[in-house]
Design a protein that fits this description.
It holds the Pfam family FAD_binding_7. Keywords: Chromophore, FAD, Flavoprotein. Belongs to the DNA photolyase class-1 family. Its cofactor is (6R)-5,10-methylene-5,6,7,8-tetrahydrofolate; FAD. May have a photoreceptor function. With about 425 residues, this protein is α/β, with parallel strands linked by helices. The protein folds into three domains: about 130 residues, Rossmann fold, CATH 3.40.50; about 90 residues, Alpha Horseshoe (Serine Threonine Protein Phosphatase 5, Tetratricopeptide repeat), CATH 1.25.40; about 120 residues, DNA Cyclobutane Dipyrimidine Photolyase, subunit A, domain 3 (Orthogonal Bundle). Helices cover about 45% and strands about 5% of the residues. It has 17 helices and five strands. The protein has a five-stranded parallel sheet with strand order 3-2-1-4-5, with helices on both faces. α2 links the parallel β2 and β3. α12 crosses α13 and α12 crosses α17. The longest helix is centred in the last third of the chain and has 23 residues.
């Protein structure tokens, strides 16, 4: 009996999941596993819990949905809590597993964890097989090696679009053979050291986790409303559900894959026509790929104050009260405050808002940018390690921005993007 584990991490879906498809092809039985990793709920050196209330709630919803979808094809999800390098080998021994299939990691802590798991599995004569499942373009199909990827996004994009291709998505499995898996037993938010926090009713969207919700959102944004055809014009919006796709939350946990989005976009373009807006979504997915490949190239550097540029930037002595005012939306700069209050009460903020509040923290307050990145990690429903730290380093002038020191004139930004103060009035009213 060839028995394998599929270790789900940030790939909580059945569609376009190479890890799952390869495991099925090489096994007689599959045990799908999700590990609540203790380290994801610890407090970081910056004073924030890695995973906050909104992120955890979205994660729990996504896992419930994955379990439901797995059960519909004959399986289920086995839940463990602790350190993956301890918990995964326990299941390997209990079920006499010969292979563990998992998503391949690229960022520093995740890679270290992967290596520790591999080390423990090796002792049990069990193989760890990893697959790249997070990007639109597969790393192996890029027109350059990882170490030679251009540090400027435009150069990366042009050459990739010209000389590479997007692979076809994997079909969703119709059946999964598993031993009996007990009904889902999730830790409560309390057991994770967190509280339930309802999303404020002013939120752009009542985000709910899971593959089912992700696909429903895609169908809404593409086929039901055709909002995608105006995406380029509306993407800098601040109020309402449909100024942008909002796919980022589901992409972050892998409830939907970039290739699946691309496949559906091609169907949409065939039916309703392609334009700058439909292309712009692919452009944004390319940014996401880019930060993932950059993380692979530079590894731990993205988490250091000097970033990948290794240059000093003027930073004030750490000021706890200034940081707290920024978090609470009490800086006195109305556009910054409105955005920070939205983030605090909903776990989400527009792209326009993120750039402004990051510029304010780095350039006006001159605080260490990593505190901002760590707070976003804690608070954002759509936190993605590569995009978050890559974008913050970019804004702080220590990342991939060829211009360096990108300063936002916040007053001008507010009058350009919130002319009638609709957004500020929404969030600044008590």
């Amino acid at each position: 009996m060839r028995r394998s584990i599929v270790w789900f991490k940030t790939d909580l879906r059945l569609h376009d999941n190479e890890t799952l498809i390869k495991a099925i092809a090489q096994s007689d039985e599959i045990i799908p596993v999700y590990c609540f990793d203790d380290s994801q709920f610890e407090t970081t050196e910056f004073g924030f819990k890695k995973t906050g209330n909104f992120r955890a709630q979205f994660l729990l919803e996504s896992i419930i949905d994955l379990d439901k979808n797995l059960r519909s094809i004959g399986s289920g999800l086995l839940i463990v809590k602790g350190k993956p390098e301890v918990e995964i080998p326990k299941i390997v021994q209990e079920y006499k597993v010969s292979k563990v299939f998992a998503k391949r990691e690229v960022s520093y802590e995740e890679k270290q964890k992967e290596a520790r798991v591999q080390e423990e599995l090796f002792k049990l004569k069990c193989e760890l097989k990893t697959f790249s499942t997070s990007t639109l373009y597969h790393a192996e199909d890029l027109p350059f090696s990882i170490k030679d990827i251009p540090d400027v996004f435009t150069n990366f994009r042009k050459k990739t679009e010209k000389d590479s291709f997007i692979r076809v998505s994997f079909e969703e499995p119709k059946e999964l053979k598993s031993p009996d898996i007990e009904s889902l037993k999730l830790p409560t938010l309390e057991e994770l050291g967190l509280d339930f926090q309802p999303i404020d009713s002013r939120a752009v969207l009542p985000f709910k986790g899971g593959e089912t919700e992700a696909i429903a959102r895609l169908n809404h944004y593409f086929f039901e409303t055709k909002c995608i055809s105006e995406y380029k014009e509306t993407r800098n919006g601040l109020v309402g559900a449909d100024y942008s796709s909002k796919f980022s939350a589901w992409l972050a946990l892998g409830c939907i894959s970039p290739r699946f989005i691309h496949d559906e976009l091609k169907k949409y373009e065939k039916q309703f026509g392609a334009n700058d807006s439909t292309y712009w979504l692919v452009f944004e997915l390319l940014w996401r790929d880019y930060f993932r490949f950059m993380m692979k190239k530079y590894n731990a550097k993205f988490f250091q104050q000097a970033g990948i540029q290794s240059k000093g930037i003027p930073v004030n002595k750490h000021n706890t009260s200034q940081l707290q005012e920024w978090i609470d939306g009490e800086t006195g700069v109305d556009f910054v405050d409105a955005n920070m209050i939205e983030l605090k009460l909903t776990g989400f903020m527009s792209n326009r808002g993120r750039q402004n509040v990051a510029s304010y923290l780095c350039n006006d307050l001159k605080l260490d940018w990593r505190y901002g990145a760590a707070y976003f990690e804690h608070q954002l429903i759509d936190y993605d390690v590569c995009s978050n730290w890559g974008n913050w380093a970019y804004l702080a002038g220590v990342g991939n921005d060829p211009r360096g020191n990108r300063y936002f004139n916040i007053e001008k930004q507010a009058s350009d993007y919130d002319k009638d103060k609709k957004y500020r009035n929404l969030w600044l009213k008590s």
